[in-house]
Structure formats: structure tokens, C-alpha cells
Write a structure and sequence with these properties.
237 residues; mainly beta; Glutamine Phosphoribosylpyrophosphate, subunit 1, domain 1
């Protein structure tokens, strides 16, 4: 698979929706995680990321403008032991709870479907990074309707064992803007990562569409120590 330029992918897509990047830094020292959200409605744009004890959660920037918390208020990132879970919805909690009961990532997601936001039927995208023996592996999942037909659910899981230094994968909800919004198609896109978390954060944030971007979270996990370094950028200040 050809390595694509993440900056170009973000700049050329005015509305990728929500996106997950998982990978490994070029120097091989860190697992790389990124998650961003975008919004077209007042309700969707009225959000910020807030740090929690082991990840982040979304919250309303202005509580008086929150019209519907359904699908927009959730914990995108949670940590379960040596595993970091990243998703675009409350399936984060589903994965956490069921994996805590010894089920697998895939088994947990079999209890969920795409989002109930007709006519978009937004895909649920999820990722998990597992630290192991000074290294890492990761997996990504997308649950989507059958080309907009809500009567059928398509489930795809992509696993990456012994990931290559400097390589990552990008999975997002939409191919672009539209009405209804066109769901992501194909495999997660292979992209290049960076050693510097601040440079990577700045590149992603500056490349996201200025009108539609809402928040960005980036985490680098030191594979030798398990220590996480985080960056959060919110458009609403």
C-alpha cells in the first residue's frame, strides 16, 4: 500500500468528520495515537476535549448551547492496563467493559452498530493499541451501513502486528462533505508519523479545515516505560 501524506489528506478533505491515527514513531521509541473531531452544526461545534485520569472526554464548551448530548458527549480515549482504546463514540465504554471481562476487541464491537443518525448512519470507528515486551501492536475497526442501507451492518477489523517504525494508519468517518455524508471506504490509509509530538500535533491541527475542526488529541506512549505524553488542542478557548 502506498504511503500517503497525512497533511495533504486532511487539507484536501473539508469534512473527514472524526478521525483516528495509530502508529509508531520513526525512531521506534513511541506508539503514536491521534484523535480529532469536527462539526457542522452548532451542537457539534460546541465541544472541547477535557483530560481525564486515563484519557479524555468530550464536554460542552457552553452548557447553555447544548441541545442534544446524544452521540457527541462521550469518552474517546480510555486505558485498560497495557491497552489504550480510542473511538468516535460511547463504544469506548463497551470495549473497555467487555475486554475487562476477557472478551476481545472484535467480540466487544459485535454488540454495536453504526450510529443512529439517519440518513448519514455515521460509521463507528475504533482503535486499540497494546503495549507488549517493549513494543506495540494495534488494531482498527469500522462498523458501517451497507452503502447507506440501515438494514445491513458491515464490520471490518484491521490488525497491525509488529508495526513498522515511522508508519501509521488513518481511519475516518467520511470520505468528504455531502448530504447525506458519504461513509469511509476501504482500508485505513497508510501514513507517515513523526518523532516530535508537537510537530505532529501542529501539522494535523493546521491541516484540518478551519471552519469545521473542533478538537484534536495526540498521545505518544514511550514503549520502554509506558509513560504517556499528551497534547490537546481545542478551537473553543
Amino acid at each position: 500500500m502506498k504511503t500517503l501524506d497525512l497533511q495533504t489528506l486532511l487539507r484536501e478533505n473539508p469534512y473527514p468528520g472524526r478521525g483516528i491515527v495509530l502508529g509508531k514513531s520513526p525512531d521506534g521509541k513511541n506508539a503514536v495515537i491521534a484523535y480529532f473531531i469536527m462539526g457542522r452544526s452548532v451542537n457539534s461545534r460546541n465541544r472541547v476535549f477535557e483530560a481525564t485520569a486515563n484519557g479524555i472526554r468530550t464536554k460542552a464548551f457552553d452548557e447553555s448551547k447544548l441541545s442534544d448530548p446524544h452521540l457527541i458527549i462521550y469518552s474517546p480515549v480510555r486505558v485498560l492496563g497495557t491497552k489504550t482504546i480510542v473511538t468516535n463514540g460511547d463504544q469506548t465504554d463497551t470495549i473497555y467493559d467487555l475486554m475487562d471481562k476477557q472478551q476481545t476487541f472484535e467480540q466487544a464491537l459485535r454488540t454495536r452498530e453504526y450510529e443512529d443518525d439517519a440518513p448519514n448512519y455515521t460509521p463507528r470507528i475504533s482503535g486499540i493499541v497494546h503495549l507488549e515486551d517493549g513494543g506495540c501492536n494495534y488494531a482498527m475497526s469500522i462498523l458501517k451501513s451497507a452503502d447507506g442501507n440501515p438494514d445491513s451492518v458491515h464490520r471490518f477489523t484491521f490488525s497491525y502486528t509488529k508495526p513498522v517504525n515511522g508508519e501509521g494508519h488513518f481511519l475516518h468517518t467520511y470520505m468528504g462533505d455531502g448530504d447525506p455524508l458519504p461513509s469511509f471506504e476501504g482500508e485505513p490509509e497508510k501514513i507517515a508519523t513523526m518523532d516530535d509530538i508537537d510537530a505532529f500535533t501542529a501539522m494535523m491541527w493546521n491541516a484540518l479545515n478551519e471552519d469545521n475542526k473542533v478538537s484534536l488529541f495526540v498521545r505518544y506512549i514511550d514503549l520502554a516505560t509506558g509513560k504517556a505524553t499528551d497534547r490537546i488542542v481545542n478551537k473553543n478557548q
